[in-house]
Predict the structure.
Amino acid sequence: MGNKRDPESFLKEEMKTLRESNLEWFIRHLESSSKPHSKVDGKEVLMLNTNNYLGLATHPKIIEATIEATKKYGAGAGAVPVIAGTFDLTRKFQEKFAKFKEVEASLLCQTGYAVNSGLIPMLVGKPDIVVSDELNHGSIIDGVRLSGAKRIIYKHRDISDLETQLREAEKEEARRICIITDGVFSMDGDIAPLDKIRPLCKKYKARLILDDAHSTGVLGENGGGTHEHFNLPAGDDIIMGTFSKSFAVNGGFISASKPIINYLRMMSRSYMFSASLPPVTIAAVIAGLDVLEKEPHLMKQLHENVAFATNGLRKFGLASEPKAGIIALKVPGNVDIRKLACHFHKAGIFLNAIEFPAVPLHKQRFRISIMATHTRKDLEKLIFIVEDLWNKYVIPLQS
């Protein structure tokens, strides 16, 4: 059994348990750029497994901007922002992005995960209460845990339960109450009812923190995100997110009032103690904002593609009605979703299997990511392959 005090021996035992329980993640290797037709593990596949919703990862204007930025600024920043400073590109981005989100200020951060782990603990602590949607992203959960604030969970998108939990929080006379929710939920693709949450914020004097990761560049007339989708001003809300979705690069953002941004710039540990983003990333995001403004047909095409794929897949069972770039295709708990994923790969479809323990067994699903650059032929192929595999491997187990 080995020495249990030895970390390597302990981890070997943990990995053995994961393998025996069929819980080890199998990570495939992308051998081309992230585009509708890609090469994965030596096989040409239809890519339905990326958050590159608008196809910006391979957009000519983005590539040109990143090349020019590398030539001018080099490969990296050299240190953390408070030591080496930030590029003038960063200042340009933050001003441009604040206007895009219709807030006073924005802060460019290193990753979306770093945003939540650094932002939330700076806004709430032990005397405070966070009321959180039960399906919020893991980075939100970790950020709340780090903060030490009391976490109260409300049922997914359930406004009645949210108000019940807010009434209970109010009784505790917490120093501050925050409501935290994703804008678009990453596993189901449904949208937080922001138009109903905002009145509760006012009623219970709660501050809203919104994770707009899967909404930015996807929702709203101009891609502004969840607030624009509901035609609501940002107000006192704190909006955060990541550029690893629609903008197809790394990095994160916080958009809020100037006092909050100035405070986080000085106090957020994940921001202070992580190296600044490389110039190539900042240039890509600035160029991405220009593309959103000048090529609105990309968002229009994305939503048309989602509608077409949804209509074709609905009969197989959806976790929710898609509103953004995500379609969650439910898989019955008695179906081996890993084997089914292999069958998809053999058929030339690269899909993301979301399985236990990431979700309960009865909620396992394929998370399908639609791109604006998918053609109608691509989506017809997806629907055809799903029907073929369902007839072979899913429907027989249900009958």
